[in-house]
Task: inverse folding
């Protein structure tokens, strides 16, 4: 199978190659000078394949290498723009294209409330930029679709409007507004925005553990893994993780069972809650709806909850979270989470790590992964958390508390629900907020994003040995 | 006395939940809650021998069927 097929796009593939080389060098104890060779390893020869010349290609890769090694320590954001890679896409807003037929109806003119549209001697429309307010009514009215909106893909992807254009015409991220969801990273067609990687920290953690001699290193894996690594079996991914040097693999979904159990109790007690699983959603509330902060569930995220349990029950344990999420890299730096999780890795980065160690998953025996219930596992897709909270209410016999969940699939729906709640017109007592469309399976750190991801998560849920949340938690609630 | 049951994936599939619940019941029936500390951990690296249990660092292989025997032989005799 071709390497590039493991990913959705060539941009991801290029980033993966950088991560793989960085990890390979770290593992071989290569000196810093060798790191400087990476751009030439990835872009050999003299013929450019991506940009104007190989020198620009290598300069961009050099910047990606820096981000793969942790990036700018002075910038607290885990998402960064690579200025020289930003292709300065047209950002002129609404423009009339050559498709304008110079018709007689002039619907665009009637649609424009600002009088910004005029016509030349050929009846072709023109937009006066000093009057245009970018409302888009003219584009909607044109029967030839001759008016288009030139907006940058990163700005379209960023639904929280954290991206603007700086004086140098490059994209610039407002760290206050940014929720680190990674949508821009995934959408930028030139790979000019990247999530910082902590893959070097993970290599260090793996090596220093010496296969458990010095401490036990646990991999906590998100349930969305069931929609990833499609070329291999999930059991082979588990064996691969142990081959890398992890002591064992634990499902973050068991942490989700813990969260569903506690969140359903908290909901009955408080009467209204917004979920706290998705770090990007939590950050969004904090920056855009600060008055709603008291409504955020006090639960740790599933990742943090299970990691806390591992560290409480096992001396000398360290934890690496592996998932689809760039915002988790931000969450693990929070004071409330830092003691429990030592590093966060994406599935993209895990693929790079496997290949840096030349571990071919398809040749491995299948290991087992079974800690959580169906309900913990379906947290990986939109709607799963609400189903689990409903189940939690049922298992606690709190059936007289009617759950009215507002399932928000993507940050735009989150915004709409929070706006309604702030105006007291939301007919719900629980907001399930997932910043990525589809839920975690839509995360920017996924290798691939496909329609069938949701049904794969559901199938994985049904395979769980434990069918209820309380059964899955039985080993945890009775053992302390 | 510290009794630790493996709750990793392999042992879970072999019945660590039933072992934990069994021990929990036996300990409370025998009024040993203050003498026996029951704990769990993810994976003891002896997956073939699961369900893995340690009593003060001594290793035992237990199954849901042998919980009662194990309790009588290895726990009751030691606390007695």
Result:
């Amino acid at each position: 199978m071709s390497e590039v097929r493991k990913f959705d796009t060539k941009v991801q593939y290029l980033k993966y190659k950088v991560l793989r080389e960085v990890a390979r060098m770290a593992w071989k104890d290569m000196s810093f000078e060798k790191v400087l060779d990476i751009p030439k390893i990835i872009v050999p020869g003299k013929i450019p394949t991506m940009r104007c010349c190989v020198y620009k290609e290598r300069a961009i890769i050099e910047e990606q290498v820096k981000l793969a090694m942790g990036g700018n320590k002075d910038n607290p954001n885990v998402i960064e723009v690579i200025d020289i890679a930003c292709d300065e896409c047209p950002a002129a807003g609404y423009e009339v294209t050559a498709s304008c037929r110079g018709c007689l109806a002039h619907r665009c003119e009637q649609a424009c409330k600002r009088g910004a549209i005029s016509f030349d001697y050929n009846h072709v429309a023109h937009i006066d930029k000093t009057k245009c307010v970018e409302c888009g009514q003219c584009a909607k009215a044109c029967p030839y679709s001759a008016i288009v909106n030139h907006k940058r893909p990163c700005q379209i992807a960023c639904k929280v409007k954290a991206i603007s254009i700086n004086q140098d015409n490059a994209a610039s991220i407002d760290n206050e507004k940014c929720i680190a969801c990674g949508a821009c990273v995934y959408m930028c067609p030139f790979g000019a925005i990247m999530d910082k990687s902590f893959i070097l920290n993970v290599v260090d953690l793996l090596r220093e553990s010496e296969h458990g001699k010095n401490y036990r290193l646990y991999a906590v894996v998100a349930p969305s893994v069931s929609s990833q690594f499609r070329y291999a079996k999930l059991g082979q991914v588990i064996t691969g993780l142990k081959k890398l040097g992890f002591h064992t693999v634990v499902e973050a979904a068991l942490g989700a069972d813990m969260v569903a159990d506690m969140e359903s109790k908290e909901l009955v007690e408080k009467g209204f809650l917004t979920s706290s699983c998705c770090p990007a959603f939590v950050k969004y509330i904090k920056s855009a709806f600060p008055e709603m902060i008291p409504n955020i569930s006090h639960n740790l995220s599933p990742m943090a909850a299970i990691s806390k349990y591992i560290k409480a029950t096992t001396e000398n344990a360290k934890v690496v979270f592996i998932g689809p999420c760039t915002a988790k890299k931000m969450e693990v730096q929070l004071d409330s989470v830092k003691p429990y999780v030592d590093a966060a890795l994406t599935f993209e980065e895990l693929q790079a790590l496997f290949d840096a160690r030349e571990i071919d998953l398809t040749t491995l025996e299948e290991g087992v992964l079974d800690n959580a219930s169906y309900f913990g596992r379906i947290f990986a897709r939109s709607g799963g958390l609400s189903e689990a909270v409903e189940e939690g209410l049922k298992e606690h016999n709190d059936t007289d508390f009617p759950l009215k969940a507002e399932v928000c699939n993507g940050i735009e729906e989150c915004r709409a629900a929070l706006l309604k709640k702030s105006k007291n017109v939301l007919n719900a007592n629980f907001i399930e907020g997932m910043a990525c469309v589809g839920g975690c399976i839509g995360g920017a750190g996924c290798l691939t994003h496909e329609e069938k991801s949701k049904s794969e998560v559901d199938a994985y849920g049904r395979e769980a040995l434990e069918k209820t949340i309380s059964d899955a938690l039985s080993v945890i609630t009775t053992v302390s | 006395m510290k009794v630790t049951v493996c709750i990793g994936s392999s042992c879970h599939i072999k019945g660590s939940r039933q072992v934990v619940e069994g021990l929990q019941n036996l300990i409370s029936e025998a009024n040993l809650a203050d003498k026996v500390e029951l704990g769990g951990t993810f994976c003891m690296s002896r997956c073939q021998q699961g369900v893995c249990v340690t009593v003060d660092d001594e290793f035992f292989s237990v199954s849901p069927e042998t919980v009662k025997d194990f309790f009588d032989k290895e726990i009751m005799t030691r606390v007695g």
Q: What stands out?
A: Chain B has one domain: 2-55+62-79. The longest helix of chain B spans residues 16-29.
